[in-house]
């Protein structure tokens, strides 16, 4: 056997093990039953298609992730991408995760403009096609130059300008790409007009090339905003380039490190200078409204004048084409052109989710006139002339209001374009805590507050210091003013960046994320009913986001926790009932819903949540870096700062499906977050025994705490990150020492040594079970780890926890010496019954799983799935409500339904 190539050995192992890989699933209708026994998984390519219709459109390119069963492809496998009709598409491939045996688990793939026009692709082992144009990167002492074959960008490694220039065919389209920040030092809460503000400019601390082609190049730039001796508001900017493309993408992140009572952001923007070479009448401004709508104007218009220059002249200007020689115009126009005003300045401001205003003026020092308005602008524009210009756009423009687009000086030699992530025309960004503490100075009063508003308050903990926000922008270097259909396509690419995705069946076959999902299945009335309920719940939250306007720079992507049936309103202003902040894993519900369905609307909803919860709800710098904040009125308000919110388990699906580097950063940053337990005891308010954090004896729970640590360690290990060896060692040592506890997971917690990465093994058994322990990703992490790490004792400990949580108190006491006490969330825990049933081939456990799912404490069979209209004076905006729905129950119902169908679907009662 030693003479066989490694790839043959891997394939042989995969084929031989295929039946064993799926054998534990109960019944023939389980998740893996769809895999044909005639075709080994090793011989199956991946099917790839666009998430939304329309293909690549005007985007630069697309990057997507593909999953592979263990043992199928060696770590150095190359891949080829072909269209449905057999045409080769150039593709760049890299590894994002490996299985423990070194075979490929997740790969990332980048395609450029050659992918345009095709709808479906096949990804299979092979030699990738060579692109007609490749992207190249060169570095000198202070600059990085990226050439896509169509455009060339020069990027600074220091100083105040991120992008020195963007050229096309030797013509400068844009220069001096930079960041701008406006700070206001106080807020006038009255009407005295005392506001003062100052400007800070982005200053680079370093830039690195993360990828250099041949299809995709990535440059990361870090720094802070500076004015004089003060630097603050750190930024991290990534620029993405694809071979042959005329555009590039920017992912822009800021981390708030100011004083919430003094540092109010008045404006936050990205700015470029655009050279204006053409005659004023050959310069053009295009600003998108809603949908395909556009403001279409020239800097100096020749339409609508009292004298007509001629139909050919007017038509050319509206199209953005070079005007005929003025000698051919009606001379009554050409001799008076000096009296036709030039309009050099334009502003579109979107200060809410429901309205934008557009205005323009001739130049600074003169009055503005309204130029239109509407409801929701796409956040896209163009300025330039017939010899070239810059298109620019900000994604989620109205969703993350207040936002703004500015064009200044288009009538001069240079126009200035600013994409405001926070509009300077809006109220300044106010991150002050929303109340004065109300006398909750000590734990007793704070616990009383928790018992009335569900808010876990503690002085000094409601701080935004360290939270972050990421925005996405696109830029096109056009050789001429684009035609209307091109501009519409560019605007659409900003609003919904084209995304390639592998088929759900391929993800199921690969058994990623614990193998806890199967394709949507309506094969029986009982299954169809559950599928209908899952669809209902997703649609409800999607509709509620719109009806209740869950939008805004810091809010978009999150959902509310609990509904107030008396006010017909979510409890947005009641303590811990307000923003959800990932409570009980809605992130996972949404991602598992996507993994099994491939639905674009689910993906986009989950994507927005991942962007929010991984940034806004988590601290990235400061004393609590690596911890997230529990649900509350403000995303950072609650004093419970815990691993259960920052956990990498919520980010993993998006990262592996898209290879997004920013989300990769977030997960890598959590590898050493076990150190946070030295800083903050997560259960400090309810401890009954004295406790002082000790580096060699840190109290860490086996549920919400360890699952977060384990997710970060697993991700670093399988990605092969710089701390992979440490992460693997910590993962294995903690798994081993949890399993060694007298009561395993039921022990509840252990004393952890930061230096050895091990839990001390307790001498006495303890029953320390909480209904929350497993509901923040522990179920999913244990399923993955049991598949990956051969540790029978750990598997046995987890299966015991799964079997006994929903068991009777008598059964619990017989096994552990005492029962688990009063518990909740039995429906959510039914998926643990299902998992144990599948692993142990236990029909009774499978039946119990469905009994607990349908007739316990969640959404029961008696629930009526209807919509109650809310209108008139009962609500601010008309819509509908469902009084039985809460986010906790929804998330757990969704996860239990998805996982139970995958694991014990054939045991679902008729």
From TrEMBL:
Q: Can the keyword Cytoplasm be found in this entry's annotation?
A: no
Q: Which UniProt keywords apply?
A: Signal
Q: Name one Pfam family in it.
A: PcRGLX_3rd
Q: Which parts of the sequence belong to the PcRGLX/YetA-like N-terminal RIFT barrel domain?
A: 47-125
The organism's taxonomy opens as: Bacteria, Bacillati, Actinomycetota, Actinomycetes, Kitasatosporales
Does the record's keyword annotation contain Signal?
yes
PcRGLX/YetA-like C-terminal alpha/alpha toroid domain span = 497-908
Domain spans labelled PcRGLX/YetA-like central beta-sandwich: 135-491
Q: Where is the signal peptide?
A: 1-33
Record-given protein name = Tat pathway signal sequence domain protein
InterPro entries on file: PcRGLX/YetA-like, PcRGLX/YetA_2nd, PcRGLX/YetA_3rd, PcRGLX_1st, TAT_signal
PANTHER family associated with the record: CONCANAVALIN A-LIKE LECTIN/GLUCANASE (PTHR40081), TAT PATHWAY SIGNAL SEQUENCE DOMAIN PROTEIN (PTHR40081:SF1)
């Amino acid at each position: 056997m030693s003479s066989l190539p490694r790839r043959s050995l891997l394939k042989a192992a995969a084929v031989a093990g295929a039946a064993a890989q799926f054998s534990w699933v109960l019944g023939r209708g389980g998740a893996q039953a769809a895999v044909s026994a005639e075709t080994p998984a090793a011989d199956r390519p991946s099917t790839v298609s666009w998430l939304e219709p329309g293909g690549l459109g005007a985007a630069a390119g697309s990057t997507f992730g593909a999953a592979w069963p263990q043992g199928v492809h060696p770590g150095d496998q190359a891949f080829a991408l072909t269209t449905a009709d057999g045409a080769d598409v150039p593709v760049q491939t890299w590894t994002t995760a490996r299985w423990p045996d070194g075979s490929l688990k997740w790969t990332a793939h980048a395609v450029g403009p050659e992918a345009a026009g095709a709808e479906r692709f096949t990804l299979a082992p092979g030699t990738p096609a060579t692109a007609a144009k490749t992207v190249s990167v060169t570095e000198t002492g202070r600059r990085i130059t990226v050439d896509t074959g169509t455009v060339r960008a020069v990027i600074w490694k220091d100083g105040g300008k991120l992008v020195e220039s963007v050229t096309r065919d030797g013509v400068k389209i844009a220069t001096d790409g930079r960041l701008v920040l406006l700070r206001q030092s106080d807020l006038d809460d009255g009407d005295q007009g005392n506001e003062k503000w100052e400007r800070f400019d982005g200053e680079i601390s370093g830039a690195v090339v993360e990828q250099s082609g041949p299809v995709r190049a990535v440059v990361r730039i870090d720094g802070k905003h500076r004015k004089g001796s003060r630097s603050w508001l750190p930024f991290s900017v990534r620029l993405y380039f694809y071979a042959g493309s005329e555009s590039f993408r920017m992912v822009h992140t800021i981390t708030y490190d100011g004083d919430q009572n003094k540092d109010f952001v008045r404006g936050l923007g990205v700015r470029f200078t655009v050279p204006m070479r053409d005659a004023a009448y050959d310069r053009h401004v295009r600003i998108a409204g809603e949908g395909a709508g556009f403001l279409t104007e020239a800097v100096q218009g020749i339409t609508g004048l009292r004298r007509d220059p001629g139909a050919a002249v007017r038509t050319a200007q509206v199209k953005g084409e070079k005007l005929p020689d003025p000698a051919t115009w009606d001379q009554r126009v050409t001799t008076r052109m000096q009296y036709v005003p030039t309009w050099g300045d334009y502003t579109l401001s979107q200060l809410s989710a429901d309205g934008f205003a557009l205005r323009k003026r001739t130049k600074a020092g003169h009055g503005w006139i309204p130029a239109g308005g509407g409801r929701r602008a796409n956040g896209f524009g163009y300025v330039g002339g017939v010899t070239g210009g810059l298109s620019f756009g900000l994604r989620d423009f109205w969703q993350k209001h207040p936002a703004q687009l500015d064009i200044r000086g288009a009538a001069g030699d240079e126009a200035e374009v600013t994409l405001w992530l926070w509009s300077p025309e809006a109220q300044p960004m106010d991150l002050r805590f929303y109340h004065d503490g109300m006398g909750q100075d000590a734990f007793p009063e704070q616990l009383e507050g928790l018992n009335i508003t569900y808010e876990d308050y503690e002085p000094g903990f409601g701080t935004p210091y360290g939270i972050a926000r990421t925005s996405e922008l696109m830029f096109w270097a056009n050789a001429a003013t684009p035609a209307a259909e091109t501009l519409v396509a560019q605007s659409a690419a900003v609003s919904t960046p084209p995304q390639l995705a592998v088929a759900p069946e391929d993800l199921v076959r690969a058994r990623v994320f614990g193998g806890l999902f199967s394709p949507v299945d309506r094969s029986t009335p009982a299954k169809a009913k559950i599928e209908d309920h899952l669809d209902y719940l997703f649609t409800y939250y999607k509709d509620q986001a719109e009806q209740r306007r869950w939008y805004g720079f810091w809010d978009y992507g999150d959902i509310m926790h609990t509904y107030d049936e008396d006010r017909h309103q979510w409890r947005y202003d009641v303590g811990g009932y307000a923003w959800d902040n990932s409570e009980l894993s809605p992130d996972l519900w949404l991602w598992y819903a996507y993994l099994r369905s491939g639905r674009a609307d689910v993906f986009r909803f989950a994507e927005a949540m991942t962007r929010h919860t991984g940034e806004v709800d988590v601290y990235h710098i400061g004393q609590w870096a690596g911890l997230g904040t529990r649900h509350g009125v403000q995303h950072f308000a609650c004093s419970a700062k815990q691993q259960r919110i920052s956990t990498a388990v919520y980010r993993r699906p998006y990262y592996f499906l898209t290879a997004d580097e920013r989300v990769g950063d977030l997960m890598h940053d959590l590898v050493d977050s076990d150190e946070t337990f030295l800083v903050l005891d997560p259960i400090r308010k309810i401890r009954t025994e004295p406790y002082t954090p000790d580096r060699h004896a840190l109290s860490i729970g086996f549920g919400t705490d360890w699952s977060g640590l384990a997710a970060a360690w697993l991700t670093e290990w399988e990605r092969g990150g710089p701390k992979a060896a440490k992460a693997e060692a910590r993962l294995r040592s903690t798994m081993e020492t949890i399993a060694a506890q007298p009561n395993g997971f039921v022990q509840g917690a252990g004393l952890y040594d930061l230096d050895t990465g091990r839990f001390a093994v307790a001498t006495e058994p303890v029953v320390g079970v909480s209904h929350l322990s497993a509901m923040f990703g522990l179920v999913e992490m244990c399923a993955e780890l049991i598949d990956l790490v051969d540790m029978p004792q750990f598997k046995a400990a987890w299966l015991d926890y799964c079997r006994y949580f929903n068991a009777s108190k008598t059964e619990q006491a017989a096994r552990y010496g005492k029962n688990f006490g009063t518990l909740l969330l039995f429906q959510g825990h039914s998926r643990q019954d299902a998992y144990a049933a599948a692993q142990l081939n236990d029909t009774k456990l499978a039946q119990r799983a469905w009994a607990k799912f349908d007739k316990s404490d969640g959404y029961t069979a008696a629930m009526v799935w209807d919509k109650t209209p809310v209108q008139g004076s009962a609500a601010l905006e008309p819509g509908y409500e469902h009084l039985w729905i809460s986010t906790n129950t929804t998330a757990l119902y969704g996860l239990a339904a998805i996982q139970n169908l995958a694991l014990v679907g054939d045991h679902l009662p008729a």
